[in-house]
């Protein structure tokens, strides 16, 4: 679900953005920031892109069925009203 390469890239960007006087701590900072990012991202209530796409497809199909059922109800109501 969480791409480790992306986290590594983010940690590297953070360490590269440190001022030159702190570059000696860059390796340790990069490793710790990677751990912190991973831990915080794992706490988020996220789904994978694949799961999201599947649910989006299910929602679309459900919406289509609902619209078809609504059209049927409308038609039945017209017939019922016409019979009165």
Written overview of the protein:
There is one protein chain. The protein has helices at 4-16, 26-43, 49-83. It is an all-alpha fold and 84 residues long. It has two domains: 1-46, no CATH class; 47-84. Helix 1 (4-16) packs across helix 2 (26-43). The protein is rod-shaped, with a radius of gyration of 27 Å. The N and C termini lie far apart (58 Å).
SSE arrangement:
Layout (H helix, E strand, L loop, with lengths): L3 H13 L9 H18 L5 H35 L1
Helix pairs in contact: 1-2
Task: Give a brief description.
The chain has 84 residues and is mostly helical.
Structural class: mainly alpha
* Distance from first to last alpha carbon: 58 Å
Order of helices and strands: HHH
Computed over alpha carbons, the radius of gyration is: 27 Å
Number of structural domains: 2
Regions with little confidence, pLDDT below 50 for 5+ residues:
none
Range of helix content: over 70%
Proportion of strand residues: under 5%
Mean pLDDT: 85
Number of helices: 3
GO cellular component, one term: cytosol
Function: Required for efficient ubiquinone (coenzyme Q) biosynthesis. UbiK is probably an accessory factor of Ubi enzymes and facilitates ubiquinone biosynthesis by acting as an assembly factor, a targeting factor, or both.
Pathway: Cofactor biosynthesis; ubiquinone biosynthesis
Family: Belongs to the UbiK family.
């Amino acid at each position: 679900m969480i791409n480790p390469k992306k986290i590594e890239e983010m940690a590297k960007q953070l360490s590269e953005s440190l001022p030159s006087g702190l570059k000696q701590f860059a390796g340790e900072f990069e490793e710790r920031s990677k751990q912190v990012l991973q831990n915080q991202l794992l706490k988020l209530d996220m789904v994978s892109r694949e799961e999201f796409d599947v649910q989006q497809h299910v929602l679309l199909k459900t919406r289509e069925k609902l619209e078809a059922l609504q059209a049927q109800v409308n038609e039945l109501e017209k017939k019922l009203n016409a019979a009165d």
